[in-house]
Amino acid sequence: MVTVSGIKERLRKNAVRRLIRETEDANKVMTASLTKLGAEPHDDEGAAYFKALGIRPTDNKKAIREAYLRQMRKYHPDINKEAGAEAKAREINEAYTALTGAAVRYNVGEAGLITEKLLNNIKNNFIKAYQDRRHKDYDKLLTSAGYNRDNWSIVSGEIKEYANWRKAFDALEKKQFGPILDCDMEIKRLYGANSKMLQLEKDAGRLGELKLNIEKLEEMRVLSGAFARALASIAREVKDRLAEAEDENAALMKKNA
Question: Are 115 and 104 in contact (CB under 8 A)?
């Protein structure tokens, strides 16, 4: 027999499941976005370290330590006598040392690894993406003028559009950094929802699930917040660095239009 209390119970259970699923989805988006932003096309050493331990870039120090111990219990030469086990153990040790000892951490406590190297990669990748965009925009401008600067007077509108480099910069910043900023907002929303559900939930099993989930969300919230601040700082720094040369170039183009 269907009862009102039974329906409410099912709704609460589904709400908890949905919250946990959305938390995992947000974590996947954050991990994928950070991996893409900080990618090193010619250096996959960092990816190899994460793969060796079976972890993700957003995992905290506790998770890294647990993964290290789990892998060593499997491949330590005193335990595993199979061929290749010793080499695998050395690989695991190297990965653990690199990710915990050599990493220079950004101020995010225990909630993940944000290294100076990663932030530099993000900055350099962003600068390259901006330069590539400006080159494409310039080629488009020349195409409009028939690759003849004498014809620039007939495309003065396009020249003014190209000279507005800040507009192009802001659009690229939104495209490159937007997913992380959106993810930061989503994590804050999930954290608020989880906190409210903890106050209302009476079932011991679901309370346990919610407590574990909010611990995960707290780590994600600290990490995404730190990255959001770091990305804003990177954007300001790059924009300030570009300003003088871009403004001078824009003024020259407008003068010759």
Answer: yes
